[in-house]
Each structure stands twice: as C-alpha cells, then as structure tokens.
Amino acid sequence: MFGKLTLDALYHYDPIIVFANVIMIGAGVLVVALLTYYRKWGYLYREWFTTVDHKKIGVVYIVIALIFLLRGFIDAAMVRGQQATVGAGGEGYLSAAHFAELFTGHGTMMIFFMAMPFLVGLMNIAIPLQIGARDVSFPLLNAISVWLTAAAGALVMISLLVGSFSEAGWSGYTPFSGLEHSPGPGVDYWIWALQISGISTTLTGVNFVTTILKKRAPGMTLMRMPMFTWTVLCTSILIVVSFPALTVALALLALDRSVGTHFFTSIMGGDQMMYINMFWLWGHPEVYILVLPAFGIFSEVVTTYCNKRLFGYTSMVWATMAIAFLSFGVWVHHFYTMGQDPLRNSIFGIATMVIAIPTGVKIYDWIWTMFRGRIEYKLPMLWTLGFLITFVMGGMSGVLLAIPGADYKMHNSLFLVAHFHNVLIPGTMFGLLAGFYYWWPKVFGFRLDEKWGRHSFWGWLVGFYVAFVPLYMLGIMGMPRRMVTYDNPTWQFWLVIAAIGAIIVAYGIFSMFMQIYVSWRDREKNADLTGDPWGGRTLEWAIPSPPPEYNFAVVPEVRDRDAFMEMKVKNRAYERPAKYEDIHMPKSTPLPIVVAALSFFFGFAYVWHIWWLAGLCVLGTVAAVIARSFNDETEFVIPASQVQADEDAFHARLKQADVFTYIDGIQEFGDERTPAGQYVSPTSRATSGAPG
Amino acid sequence: MRRLRVPLIVVLPLLLSACSAQWFIDTFYLNELVTFFTAGPVAAYQRNVMLFTFTVMLFVLVPVVGFTLWFAWHYRAANQKNTYTPNWHHSTVLEVFLWGGPVAIILILALMTVVSTYDLDPYKPIESENEPIRVQAIAMDWKWLFIYPDYDVAVVSELAMPVDTPLQIDLTSASVMNAFMIPRLGSQIMAMSGMRTRLHLMASERGEFFGKNYQYSGDGFADMRFQALSLSQQGFDDWLAKVRASGRALDLDAYRALVQPSKKVDPIYYSSAPDGLFGYVMHRFQVGDGKVPPDAVPSDLTADDVAQHGHAH
Amino acid sequence: MASSPSYDLNRVRAAARADTEVNFGFWAYLMSDVVLFSMLFLAYVNLSQRFAGGPTPADIFSLHGVFLETMALLASSLTFGLAMVSLHQGRKNHIIGWLLATAVLGIYFLWHEVSEFVHIIHEGASFTRSGFLSAYFGLVGTHGAHVFFGLIWIATMIAQLAVKGLTPPVASRLARLSLFWHFLDLVWICVFSTVYLPGILAGGSS
C-alpha cells in the first residue's frame, strides 16, 4: 500500500535533525494559524495561488528563493561550523552521513531553489515590462512553472521530515548515487526535486524565448532590446537546449534505481562516466544560465546610476551570444582527471579559457560606461562595484583551473570550492541582490531602505572575503573538499577564519531581511509616486509602481535603445491617447496549483515506490490538462473606463511629484557634452521631492 | 598626538617582529602550502604552470581593479567638475583594445596550455635513469590497496618508493569513483571500477608525504588517506623486506575480507599478491556484478587485456 | 474571446500558421525535445556494444516487424498531412476522418512495438540484462511514450472538433499536433537507422 514507506522513515537518530523538524513544523503551523486567524486564505487563493500575472508570479519565485536562501545558508554554516570546530582527528558534532546531507543540500538548494527561482523571479518581473508587453506569451504555463518549483522545493523540505536527503553531492555522481551505494530514499528525493524544478525551468525557458522574440513593443528591434532582455534571451535559449540533458540524466538514474536498468551502474555494461558527461552537458551551460542575467542586471544598473548610455552595446550583445554558444563546448573541464588524452583536455581547456575573452570585454564595457558618467552610489551600484572587483579574482582562478595541468593539482580541493563561490556569489548573488533593490519599488510601490541595504552589502562583501580567501589557501595546502574531519592541525586555523566569514555573511543576510521589514514599515515615506524612482532608461519605468495588471495602458512605441530616456528627452513620456481601449487579460485559474500538487505527490510516491499513487497523479495531470484544453473562455476584459481612471490617478501623482518640470529639465538627448553643474540627478529629485 | 606615543612604543616592536617573514609563515602556516613546496618534477611543473598563469593574469586583474576604483571615485556624482558625456557609448579604437587585450592574454595561455597538457599527461612516462616501478592501486571503501607486481607484495594505506625512481601507477576501483593524489608529488587522477587509468609520478627528495582520495566516496572518505614514503634505495629494500616479513598472503579470501567497508585503516602488509588480481577486479565489473568470487584468479587474464574493454584513455 | 457561430475560414487558417506566437512557442518546446532525444541516442550509441555477455542486436531484432512498424508510422504522417489539407479547406468531417486514420496507424505501430518488447523480455533479454538493452528500451520506449501521448492528443482533438467545431483555437492546436506528429516520425527514422539497421546489418554479416 505505501511502498517502501514505513514509520521508520519518521525516526531520526540525530537530535539536530529532530530540532530542525520541530522548527520547520512549528513555523508551518504558525504560518497556517496566522493566515487562518487573519482570514487571509481567500485573499491568498484569489490573488496569489491562482494568479497568472507575471509580476505576482515573480514575487512568488523570489519568496521561494528567500526561504531557500535561509535553508541553504544554514546548511553552509553547519558545514563551516563542523570543519572549524572538529579539530584534527576529532569527531565533531555532525556524523559523516549528516555532513554529506548538508553539503549536498547546500549545493542543491542554492543552485536550484535559491539562484534559479530568484533569477526567474526577476525575469518575470522585469522582462514583460522592459519589452512593453502586457504579460508573457504563456501566462498559464508561467503559473504552472512557478508552482512546480514550489512543489519541488516542498519535496526537499519534506525529505527533512520523512526519510533523508541525498548524500551524493549536488552533482550526484554515479555510481555513488546508484542503488548499491546509496540505498536510502535521499537520492530519490534529490532526483525528483531536481526533475520537477528542471521541467519547470524548461517551460520557463520556452516561455521567455517566445515572449522576447514575439511580444516586443513596436519599434523594439533586437538591437534595441535592453541588455537585461538580451541576457535573458540567451539564458532562455540555453535553458531550452541544456535542461533536457539534465532531465535525461536524472530520468535514467531514476530508472537505474527503481527498475534495475544499467545506464550508469558500474556493472553489467553500464557506463558511470556517461552520467557525468550528461550532467555537465547541462551543468556547465547552467553556470551561464545563472550568470548571464546577472550580467544583464549589472548593465541596467551601471547605465541607470551612471546616468549614461551603455558603452559598447554591440560588443556586449556579441559577447553574451559568444558566452552562450561557447558554454556548450567546455563541459569536459569538470573531469580533466578522468584520464582522457591530452588532445581532448587541451581542446576543452582552451575552449574554457576563450570564454574569458567575451567575459573580459563585458567587464571593460561596464568600466567604460562609468567613464565620464555621473555615478550615484545607490545600493545596486555598490553591488556592481563589489562584483567587478571580486568577480575578476574568481575569473582568474577559473582560468587557472581551466588549464588541465593546473587542474590535475587543484581539482576536488577547496581551491575549486573557493573558485566557484568566487564566481557565483559576486556574479550571480550580487547581481540578484542588485536587481532585487532596483526593481523592488516597481513591484511594491516603495523603495527599499538604504541603510540596512548597505549593512547587507558590507556583510556580504567582507564576509565573502573572510570566508573564501581561507578556502583558496586551504586548497593550496592540499585540503580536499567535503571533509567531515581531517588530521592536519594546521588546517584548522584557516577553517576558523572561514567560519568567521560565514558569520559575517549571516549578518549580511540578516540585514537584508531587516531591510525588507524596515522598508515595509516605512512604506509611506519611501513611496514611489512616479514609477520612475531612479531616473530609469528603459520601459518599465514609464508606468506606475506598482503597475496595473495590464502593465501598459497603451503599448508604447520604441525609438531608441534607452526607450524611456528617449521619451523623456523628446518630451513624449507619459503621453496620453485621445481614447483608451478595452484590454483583454488572462483569467486566474487553479490549474497550476492542481498540477503542482499532483507533481509533488508523484515525486513523493516515486521516492517511496507507492506506484498506485504515482499512477493516479499522472492520470490526474493528463485529465486536468485535457479538461482545461476544452475551455476557450480564458480571458476577461478590463474596460476602457477603468484604464482611463487608473491613468487619471497616475497622472495626478505625476503632477504631485512635479515630474513634468524634471522632464523639461533633461538635456537634449543628442548633446554629447553637458556643461558642468547643470546636471540634475533624478534620484536626488525623487528623494528630495523637487527638481533643482 | 602625545597620547599616541606611548602605545606606539609598545606596538612598534610587535609590528616589527610581526613583519618578519618567519612570523608570517608561522602564523598563517605558509610552510603548509604544499602546492608550492613540491617534492617531485610533476608537482614542480604544475607549480610553475600556476605561477606563470597567475603572473599573466595580473595583466587582467590590475587594470580591472585599477580602472574600476579610479573611475568609481573620479566620476562620482558629487564631483560635478568632471566631464560628463551621457551619450558617449562607442569608440572603435577602445573596443579594439578591449577585445584585443583578452585575446592576446588568452593566446599566450592557450599556447602554454597545449604544451603543459602534453607534458603533464598522466599517461606519459617520466624520463629518468632508473627503471620505473609498477604499482597497481585499487580504491576500496575506504582505503587504498597498492600492489607491487614487480616485487609480488601488496600494501594497504602506504605507498613506498625509492627516491628519483619513477612510479607507473595503474588505478581502478572496487567501489565508487575515487581520485588519487599525493599533493607534494602532483597530479590527481580518478580511479573507476571496470576501468584502468594510469599516472606517472616521481619523488625527487626523500620524505613522508600525505596522499588521499579526493573524490567524495561516502562515510569513510575523510579518513581515506595514506602515507607516501620516499626512501633511499636501501630504505626501499628494507621496507620491502619488512613487508615480506609479514607473512600474510593476499589471496582471494583475504581480498574479499579486505574489500568490505572499513574506516581509518592503518597500513597492512601482504607478503604476496596473485598475478592479475588487478585485472581480475576490473574484469568482474565488466562482465559480472563487481564482486570477486572465491576461486582462483584466471591466469590468462592480463591487466592490459582487460583494460581494452575499459573506458578511460 | 467570443466564440464565432460558424467558423471563419480565414481566421482558422491564420491560427494554423506555424509562425503564430503560440506555435512558435511549440517549436521552442520541440527544440528541447530534440535535445532530449539526442541524449538518448547518445546513450544508445555509447552503450550499444556493452552486452555484458548478454544478447546482441542480431539476436533480438527482426527486420520484418520493424519494417511494418515503420511503414505504419510513415503512412500516419501522410494521413495527418491530409488532415491538415482538410483543415485549410475547412472540412471538419474530413479532418476527423483523417485523424481517425492516423490514430489507427499509430495504434498499430504502438501495438507492434509493445508486442516486440514483450517478446524480447520473454526471451530473457529484459532491460535489466545489460547496458545495451537498457539503452535500447530507454530510447525506443521514450519514442513509444511520445506516440502514446500523441494518440491521447489526437483523441482529444477529435473530441474537440466534434464538440466545438473547427474554431481558430482548435485549428491552432491541430497545427501543433501536426508538428508533434511529424516530429515523432522524424525521430523514428533516426531510431530505425541508428538502432535497427546497424544492429541487423551487423548480425547479417557475421
């Protein structure tokens, strides 16, 4: 009846896991109780669970990301704590198995349930607005994607309570992740959490490729797209082309584990290296999937806060495309040490290094955008500077590891761990946090607190160096990764410093949550009346904050790369038509949460071999989708009168904030040089309330 | 200012002593940077590759960090005296340099990559006056078994070699994927079941170096280490005599007992090991369930024959 | 979207174009499916000589059965093409007829494949026997599963044509189903020339 699931699965020998479960269940009960007490279930269902609005979906993604940021960070902190306190030859407070669950969980959660949802959330929020669209191409599919991600995250969460999580590392190398060496349910949880979130991401990729190529406002040619849109286009293409490799790798591994096939086993003609090839065929493009949109965010941030056009836009576009293309030709660099011939290793090594060329060009383009600008040190600009300086070091160690001769020595050591954190934390995390601050007012209508934001920035930046420079040192000292204990007493010194670094990062994370709370508390004071708090250059700043459900009352016409800046300069920003028209928008639907719930139960059933339940879930999903396909009444109409009323209110706010005076004061767009002293910072205008 | 003087008198000597190289080395354990304190030609080559790359990469690091900090400071909005060109966004000359610079650097590194990758190919024998010693390494849960077919002995968790004599190490695994490395001697390589990989190493000074599995392999992974002993020829002969004196033979029964999972395994000496055991272990993965039955090792099975079915190289 | 009483043929044709937004999205999905199948082909080619002492392709494949299967699937592509011709002529009943023909051919194909699987497993050559057999069942089975879902989709579309008539959304879905079905045909040709042909040729020459 319940397959392999027995009450034993609920028994945890480890008091730390019991404690974590108490916290998790307690938090869950508390949330449910509060929602019930404040009678918020109806609101949640109508406005969030059934919504197909890309902006709300983006928010849901980011909520998921923040939850998993906390969980992933706690895992990392426990790993650091173990290594710092265990001492040479000691036992430490963690068992080897629990330690393995922690480093596996940390990697899995940070990549799949923190970085990816965060990124996709920002994509959801910004892309339709940047290209002047009213929604993505497939709003329903978009909602299915977000709730599938939630379902996959729930599988990771439930593994803490029922059974255990994988111990095979976030990359799940065979044959260790095979049934013989990992007989428990952990790897199965890992497989299905990744599988469901991977399918969700594939659907997102399809959605955004179509959205960006098919839904741009008139006049927005490809070479007029904002850089963030370009990078998301490249990322979406990468998703569509690379994620199926992960899907296949995981599906075949699941078959090996559940029905006894021999794809990746070490016996009976299976090929363990095939898994590793397939995994990294997805895995290396995945790195660029994560990093390219962050590059796009930095481009937006640099132009906005330097009050300047982006330097070398064409170069940037080509560099982005080059990175996307090359990312498929480098996967072997993850296993130079598997004994290929030197020819193959050389080719992949050089291909890897070649990626440094377009990346370097991008970095120089940002630097030269700052040149002769008027740089305002708002938080996103700080993140960008922190990124530029820190990322270049990660790039250096990356080129080092790209050389097979050096990698033979540094592979699997903490040097490698330091390297990829040195790339992903500044490259992705700093970018995400910059974008978080940058687009927050657009979504919620008020700006984030600057002071706590700076605390968060310095916590992350200083904490990063204190935590990861020691790991570089330890790598050079020959310390392997994933060690629950060690016998070299000199390593402990650096591990303690690294743990202190983790504490400093913890302060950065704490400050970010404080920032959210304080900003919410002071939301009236921080309100963004104009929809354009930073003197923005792209279309999302042309509409109110928060935007109406339909985004654009009138679809704008694009005449320049910096579309909104051009409108402001040519004095056609906020132009109103003679007459507004009815707007068709997609209706809310419960289908996404139904599909997501069925996927969750399917994953759970597969983990525990409850085949009847798995079968029912598949049938249910097919039936739900077929039933939905018979419904052609999927849209509703927002009448022109309401659009008119919304716009009237918006324009009243614009007048109140004296925006039109500011626009009149902007320099003529074609002017190369502006006499010193005449420049009016739009941000200082927004904060002081009146233009100078 | 007066107040500062007293502490300075106290602090200065401390600062001076702190600046001494020895203090740095002791405090930060710099003598433990085994990647730089090499004991063999392979590791020394690799250190040079890394230092060369690092030097070349400074031509990236310095300008990026320098320009970033300079522009970030100079073009701050508060400094309204600076030139401000909000529309300047293209310069062909500059872009040629921005693309050309990285291309030049990567060209240099690419050249070095090809040369060094061929030189450091783990399958390439090391040139030496001395004949290489063959070692067959089998990774198990969680220890290393080293068979010396030339001397008909086998050892667990200890790898001895005469100084200035190349080792030709063949590797396979009786369990999951493992990675063999002795950091002070250089080059890591994977050991995988049913396959054979090969690594050449040489110690050019005497000493004891730690070696380890670097690929996570389960509960006993952290303790899966061994000592590499670089001995004089006489010392190596003595060591062989010591191993042979153990009087314990590595027959298939002993092998099957050994292959059971065990942690933190101290050195075990075997005075003899059957020919072809290494190939037989691989063979059992290729055609069977990976387990070694208690009958004799087939005599007609050589490691080279079996390796042909293997995957690596 | 108000439903049109009887269908406007121009709107139906426009909805069935391959470059509408939604059909473009389906192309993007098909790209991901191409990669999915390439991975499975890669797995098959990689494992195709790993028999682990078990049966080889020559032992288990029969050209006769596969030939009939292939013909059925190729013919079903033709009948689907005719269904799309009827769509452009606005003849609802003809579409249903051609879809039924396609479904019959698809069912024949699938029935043949399943009985082949059962036969092979009965001979002791199940997917647990060797890497080669795992890869064979994995690749051919995934294609079969796609055909199965294609059949469910065909049934759904027949029902929608019957209930709703030839509306633009139905025409649009038929256009995507058509892409899907032809895609499966294409994949099968690759399966035939990667799996069966070399396997049988190798058996014949030995």
TrEMBL record, chain A:
The lineage of its organism: Bacteria, Pseudomonadati, Pseudomonadota, Gammaproteobacteria, Salinisphaerales. The chain crosses the membrane at residues 16-37, 57-74, 109-127, 139-162, 189-209, 230-255, 275-298, 310-334, 346-367, 379-403, 423-440, 460-479, 491-513, 589-606. InterPro entries: Cyt_c_oxase-like_su1_dom (IPR023616), Cyt_c_oxase-like_su1_sf (IPR036927), Cyt_C_Oxase_1 (IPR000883), Cyt_c_Oxase_su1_BS (IPR023615). Residues 48-559 form the Cytochrome oxidase subunit I profile domain. Its main location: membrane. Residues 673-692 are annotated as: Disordered. This is Cytochrome-c oxidase. It is found in: Cell membrane. Pfam families: COX1 (PF00115). It comes from Salinisphaera dokdonensis CL-ES53. Belongs to the heme-copper respiratory oxidase family. SUPFAM superfamilies: Cytochrome c oxidase subunit I-like (SSF81442). Keywords: Cell membrane, Copper, Electron transport, Heme, Iron, Membrane, Metal-binding, Respiratory chain, Transmembrane, Transmembrane helix, Transport.
Automatic annotation (TrEMBL), chain B:
It is a multi-pass membrane protein. The chain crosses the membrane at residues 49-75, 96-118. Keywords: Cell membrane, Electron transport, Lipoprotein, Membrane, Oxidoreductase, Palmitate, Respiratory chain, Signal, Transmembrane, Transmembrane helix, Transport. Residues 130-242 form the Cytochrome oxidase subunit II copper A binding domain. It is found in: Cell membrane. Coiled coil: none annotated. Belongs to the cytochrome c oxidase subunit 2 family. This is Ubiquinol oxidase subunit 2. It comes from Salinisphaera dokdonensis CL-ES53. The lineage of its organism: Bacteria, Pseudomonadati, Pseudomonadota, Gammaproteobacteria, Salinisphaerales.
UniProtKB/TrEMBL annotation, chain C:
PANTHER family: CYTOCHROME BO(3) UBIQUINOL OXIDASE SUBUNIT 3, CYTOCHROME C OXIDASE SUBUNIT III. Cytochrome bo(3) ubiquinol terminal oxidase is the component of the aerobic respiratory chain of E.coli that predominates when cells are grown at high aeration. Has proton pump activity across the membrane in addition to electron transfer, pumping 2 protons/electron. Gene3D superfamilies: Cytochrome c oxidase, subunit III, four-helix bundle. Residues 1-200 form the Heme-copper oxidase subunit III family profile domain. PROSITE patterns: COX3. It comes from Salinisphaera dokdonensis CL-ES53. The chain crosses the membrane at residues 26-45, 66-87, 93-111, 132-159, 179-202. It is a multi-pass membrane protein. Keywords: Cell membrane, Electron transport, Membrane, Oxidoreductase, Transmembrane, Transmembrane helix, Transport. This is Cytochrome bo(3) ubiquinol oxidase subunit 3. Heterooctamer of two A chains, two B chains, two C chains and two D chains. Pfam families: COX3 (PF00510). Belongs to the cytochrome c oxidase subunit 3 family. It is found in: Cell membrane. InterPro entries: Cyt_c/ubiquinol_Oxase_su3 (IPR024791), Cyt_c_oxidase-like_su3 (IPR000298), Cyt_c_oxidase_su3-like_sf (IPR035973), Cyt_c_oxidase_su3_a-hlx (IPR013833), Cyt_c_ubiqinol_oxidase_su3 (IPR014206), Ubiquinol_oxase_su3_dom (IPR033946). CDD domains: Ubiquinol_oxidase_III.
